[in-house]
Structure formats: structure tokens, C-alpha cells
Amino acid sequence: MSKVKSVRVGLVGCGIIAQWQHLPALSHIGEAEIAAICDRDRSLLASVGKKFKIAKCYDDLGELLSKEKLDVLDICTPPQTHAALSIKAAESGCHILVEKPAGLTLEEFGRMAEACARNKVKLCQVHNMMYEPVMLRAISQVKSGDIGTVMGVEIRVLSRRTAELSKDPKHWTRGLPAGVFSEGLPHPIYLAQAFLGAVEPVAVHVRDISRHRNVASDEIWVVLEGEGGTGVITYSGNSPKDKMIMNVHGTSKSLRIDLWNSVKTEYAIGGTSLYGRAMENLKQSFSILTCSAGTALDVVTGRFHSGHFNIIRGFIQSVRNGTEMPVTIEQAREVIRVLEIITRLVQVKPGP
Ligand SMILES: NC(=O)c1ccc[n+]([C@@H]2O[C@H](COP(=O)([O-])OP(=O)(O)OC[C@H]3O[C@@H](n4cnc5c(N)ncnc54)[C@H](O)[C@@H]3O)[C@@H](O)[C@H]2O)c1
Q: Pairing mode, if any, of strands 254-258 and 243-250?
């Protein structure tokens, strides 16, 4: 029996997202083999190598690339380093999966894409929320025409991250063009684009509600005008809880997608009578119960896969089979273009 060749993956940046999502996903994807990892923090590198049973550990990406024959480099370092590391890996002939935002500016992303095209390797930005099971179900429901024509979306992101990171004034998010917003906004931008098509930011409002005085702004509202309707993004980087909720409004009904709890409900379906409203409540309660039971069953039986797992597996398969990537270069470029406009509108002042 012929043995299926696995895709040899190297990972650089062994911090939070690598340990929380990328390394667990790669360890469970049959077609992938973690060939080596890299982090410039040697003690972290050693502990992550031990935790995930990876023998080849390097504190310098150049050395890793010269010693290991990789098919893919998975980049999980801070965004400020993505361009240099991606270009170096592309020159070594590696396909690249890179965490969002892939580049800090359109110009930087253009250089990354050009290096990948010249070396005939793929470049894929991680849009994990698009691949959450509940989002995949919502997208297919909307595509089927079940909610009518999409008229608009609202996306609310609550994150504890700023509050936590602001304890460290040297944290890398502080050096991003729009601070923590550069880190948090890519998700709601690509989600809005998925339902509205091309979008343009037309208004931005920022507010500082931080209890930590070294953060200049920690809440943002963004209004997007899209081909398929209007989008409103609210991002709070200083919430006591983590949550991401999206409302998609169609001409016949609306969807509420709770990405955190993996629950999708329908509303504006019950009419105006008291009976209709009561029925809508019952239907929503039933949806919450069935979604929760379905997710729980999938988790227990090992069938539940996070958005990260799904997109990483999709990229590995696209490398192995020479098929289309889960996120195209154009889709990634559009996220960075919109982020760049928002950054100009925000004019975030650095914290004192
Ligand atoms: N998709 C998501 O849901 C999600 C969630 C969190 C973070 N992220 C993204 O993942 C990336 C990393 O975020 P994080 O929170 O894991 O960061 P982190 O600070 O926890 O980890 C980054 C690691 O990279 C290492 N590093 C930095 N420069 C390096 C270099 N030149 N060579 C080798 N190692 C280097 C650091 O030592 C650190 O260990 C960011 O782009 C962030 O936006 C995505």
C-alpha cells in the first residue's frame, strides 16, 4: 500500500495563538507533519517543543529554513514581523499561512504577495471566523436565499484583550498602526465582506473607556457602505468578557450568529400579533437548544472542529492537491485595504 506523503510544516512564533489553536490543529491533521518550530524566546521554545513533542526547535528562522525541508511555514508572530518572515520563507520555496493582519499596510502586503508569486508559492491569511461551523451554516443558508436578499449586517466584538495587554505597555499591539484595533478588526471586516461584498468605511468613532490609563482608545464603531448593504462594526477591546455576535438582515428574515457559543437563531419571523411574537420566542429557544445539543454532541464525538482547524486543514489540502486556498490573495488584500482606511480615519493617539 502506498504511503500518503504528508505536508511538512514549520511554525514560527510559539505564543498564544500557536499554542491555543495552530499547534493543536496541526497535530490532529492527518495530512500534516510538524517538522520544526521557531521562536526567538528560547525558554518558551523549549517548553512548547516539550508540550507538543516536537524535537526540532530553532531560535532563528533563517537557520530553520536552511536546515529543514519545509512545504509550509505557518507564521504566528506579531504582525510587525509578518512581511520580513514571509518574504524570507517565500524565497526558500515555502507556501505561507500567516495570521491576520498579514501585513501592516497594502504596500507591505503587496511586497509579500509579489515575493510569493515570483517564487510560485501560496500565501494565505487566516480568516478563521469564516470557517467556524456556525458561520459555515449561516453562509450556506444565506446563499440558498432562505433569508431573502441581504440588506445589512452588524458585528459586535467584545474582547478582554486590551485590558489584559495594557498591563504591558511594551506589548506589540501598542506598535500597530491603529493599536489594538489593527489586531481586532480583521475578523469583523472579512465577515462583513462575506455578506456585503466590497465595502468602504464611511464613518469611524473611537472612545476611551479604559480603566487602564495607558491605552488611548479601546472602543471603535465603524460604518461600512457595501455593495450589498450597510455594515456596522462595534469593537470593544476592554470588555469583561469575550464575545462575537453577528446579525445578518435579509428581506424576509434576520439571523443572529453567536460565534462564541456556536448558536444561530432566526428572528423577525413571527409577525406582529402577540401569538406571532410568542411563537418567535419559542422558535428561538428551540434553535438555541438544538444548536447547543448539536455542538455538544460534535464535541463529545470529536467531530467539532474550530474555525482555525478548518482553515488550517483547508490550506494544507490546497498545498497538497494544488487546489484553491481557503482565503484568496484578493480577499486578504481587501481586508488590509479596508483596515488601512480605518486606520487613517481613526488617527489613534499613542497612550501616554
Ligand atoms: N485568528 C485569531 O483568532 C487570532 C487570535 C490571537 C492572535 N492572532 C494573531 O496571531 C499573531 C500572534 O499573536 P499572539 O497573541 O499569539 O502573540 P504572542 O505575543 O503571544 O506570540 C508571538 C510569539 O512570536 C515570537 N516572535 C516574535 N518575533 C519573532 C521572530 N522574528 N522570530 C521568531 N519568533 C518571534 C515571540 O517571541 C512570541 O513568542 C498576531 O498576528 C495576532 O494578531 C490571531
A: antiparallel
CATH architecture of the domain formed by 130-303+338-346: 2-Layer Sandwich (3.30)
Tell me, using a 6 A CB cutoff, whether residue 333 lines ligand 1: no
- Any idea which architecture 7-125 has in CATH? 3-Layer(aba) Sandwich (3.40)
C-beta of residue 220 within 8 angstroms of C-beta of residue 206: yes
CA-126 nearest atom, ligand 1: 1
Q: For 265-283, write each residue's pLDDT tens digit.
A: 998 877 788 888 898 889 9
List beta partners, residue 255.
248, 266
CA–CA separation, 11 and 6 (whole Å): 15
Testing ligand 1's pocket by substitution, the residue of 19, 38, 87, 99 carrying the most ligand atoms inside 8 A of its CB is 99
Whether residue 22 has its Cβ less than 6 Å from ligand 1: no
pLDDT, one tens digit per residue, over 109-155 is 999 999 999 999 999 999 999 999 999 999 999 999 999 999 999 99
Residue bearing the CA closest to ligand 1, atom 31:
81
Grid coordinates given for 214: 495607558
Q: What is the mean pLDDT of residues 301-324?
A: 96
Domain ranges of the chain: 7-125, 130-303+338-346
